[in-house]
Design goal:
mainly alpha, two-stranded parallel sheet
């Protein structure tokens, strides 16, 4: 086997079906991520990290681990998933220095394709 530092790296990015309640919890303060979140705030018209008020009685029955109602809407979910994917790249840079730069392939499913293109340097945030 090749030494660990020379092994090739491939990055895979999921679609919006992988959303979760705490998807930004480990990366929200990583370098560059606050600027991405500011861009998302401007696009969405609200702060996705602030707790939203209850919009209907049905929300009371969803439980504490349910994703926010706004995250079930494609127009809000997709920009946040894109931000989360790129925040994940920043987290990988911190935890495994050099691995992003060593990546030899990127791939994404559906929305993840855009994040893969951004990670490869084809698209800017």
């Amino acid at each position: 086997l090749a030494p660990k530092e020379t092994k090739p790296v491939g990055l895979l990015f999921p679609d919006q079906g992988s959303r979760s309640l705490r998807m930004l919890s480990a990366a929200r303060n990583m370098p560059g991520v606050p600027q991405m979140l500011e861009g998302a705030r401007e696009l969405l018209g609200f702060d996705p990290l602030e707790e939203a008020p209850i919009q209907g009685i049905w929300e009371l029955f969803r439980g504490p681990e349910a994703i926010p109602a706004w995250l079930e809407e494609t127009r809000a979910c997709q920009p946040m998933m894109y931000v989360c994917a790129l925040a994940g790249v920043e987290r990988l840079r911190e935890r495994r220095p050099g691995s992003v730069e060593r990546s030899q392939a990127v791939a994404g499913l559906s929305l993840g394709e855009l994040a893969a293109l951004a990670a490869a340097g084809v698209l800017d945030f």
